[in-house]
Fold this sequence. Notes:
binds zinc ion, about 150 residues, alpha+beta, three-stranded antiparallel sheet, globular, 3 strands
Amino acid sequence: MSSSDPLRELYQEVILDHHRRPRNFRVIDPATATAEGHNPLCGDRYTIYVRLEGERIEDVSFQGAGCAISKASASIMTDALKGRTRAEARDIFDAFQAMVTGESTAEPPEGPGLDKLEVFSGVRAYPSRVKCATLAWHALQAALRHATGTVTTE
Length: 154
Ligand code: ZN
């Protein structure tokens, strides 16, 4: 794709918007689980916070710093996964990962609120950026795996 490709420009616009004004960029306290994600190749470093109500992701947020792709991915992920179940989050993660790693059969994740994830489909052309795009997702999956109960809030 050339740099004047309108779709690509739209994607870059979405990524830059989320990089400049990340959504859910805050601490959840108390959180059901947290996990750290670090990508030494690029220097991206994030903490993911999640609050579960049973199997449902009641709230999810992040803090940290890194490149535009990693931060936009974390921001869009938190928007996309809030309110979903752990199982749904895992399915969306699998579809997202397949899309950015460029599996030939991969379709972008589909469903309400998931259209923005497609902006990362161009990452497959840049293998070194795949880790940037998936860092927050791996951290969230780690947090969800270790989360065993529902946090008590006063
Ligand atoms: Zn990065």
